[in-house]
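tool_call: predict_structure(chain=1)
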Amino acid sequence: MKLLLLRHGMTAWNLEKRVQGRIDQPLCAAGRERLEKFDLPDWTRSCRWYSSPLRRATESAELLALDYRVEAALIEMSWGEWEGEILKPLRRELGDEMRANEARGLDFRPPGGESPREVQVRLEPWLRRIAAHGGDCAAVVHQGVIRCIYSLALGWDMRGESPVDFAWDALHTFELSPEGRLLDSYEVIPLDFS
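tool_result:
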């Protein structure tokens, strides 16, 4: 079965390059305008759609006129004390401490936040549930969730640079086994704009 992931529309914090994590930011005007121009492929309408509970994801699903269910497991990674920060200055401020933390890959953890490995652990039961239900599924999610799913599917340990340049105006397509295990498969479907 296919699993399609779509990143939510832009927020003011996306434009400012701030770490959002669990902060429940709404879409900004530019984000709403861009989503209104998305033309999802017709065949995606027959997928079972889900959304993260955060407002930027549910607003995106509504603007795309999707029939969706909110799924708590799809919430963005918690960045704890670093939510609202901008990574570039934070990296300068923390120096070697930040480099060492980022070098931990899947076990990178912001103070008071969660690691990508913990995100994967909370996603796995959901993957098993949707696989057991059968049929293609899709979800409006976050950058961190897409990266964690990609890591599970392709075995990327999240150390160093990403092996792909993630296009955020696209559907990220994965394959699931009947048991809910992600297969070694990844395709990007660029979105059309009206």
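agent: The mean pLDDT is 96. Proceeding to next step.
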